[in-house]
Design a protein that fits this description.
4 helices; Lysozyme-like; 179 residues; alpha/beta
Length: 179
């Protein structure tokens, strides 16, 4: 669901790239090789979180600038980002190959929860927003109904999504011990 569409209580409030002030990508992201996506990969930003739309929009613009200007990527790396304000921020979006976990980029939806979750878990608003986004993805045939949920550390040598968040996602539906 994108802003402007009719919203129900359990649908995600997706803030479009235009709404958060996203730059034009250097090149268009290629389509996912596998659709609907068979994997959902959870990340954290290892940065201070955000609890207001204005603060989260600023963070998302900063991530995009970092990915494009410092890493040399064509766009922001994630498909979606989630703030502790309870909003979902569109990255490269549905059906597009992100740049968030190299061996899984062409077959996953990468969701970054904005914040550092090494020693704490995201608030209830962020957790609910992720759940609503995934459910919406399944209902919209953007994510396979039997998808596997993984933490970034399961697909790449990293501590992401932080110990506390990783422990939390192990209890989420469809978490898989092995990719």
């Amino acid at each position: 669901m994108v802003s402007g569409e009719k919203r129900t209580d359990d649908s995600p409030n997706i803030i479009s790239r235009k709404e958060w002030g996203g730059r034009q990508p250097k090149s268009q992201a290629p389509d996912l090789k596998f659709k609907p996506a068979p994997y959902v990969i959870i990340h954290h930003s290892v940065s201070p979180g955000c609890k207001t739309r204005a603060a989260c929009q600023l963070k998302v613009r900063q991530f995009q600038n970092y990915h494009m200007d410092k890493k040399g990527w064509s766009d922001i790396g994630y498909n979606f980002l989630v703030g502790e304000d309870g909003n979902v921020y569109e990255g490269v979006g549905w059906d597009k190959k992100g740049a968030h976990s190299i061996p899984f980029n062409n077959k996953s939806i990468g969701i970054c929860i904005i914040g550092d979750y090494r020693n704490r878990t995201p608030n209830a608003a962020a957790v609910q927003a992720v759940a609503n986004l995934i459910a919406y993805g399944v209902e919209s045939n953007k994510i396979k109904s039997n998808y596997k949920l993984l933490g970034h550390r399961q697909t790449w040598s990293t501590e992401c999504p932080g110990n506390s968040l990783y422990t939390m996602i192990k209890s989420w539906p469809r978490w898989s011990e092995s990719p």
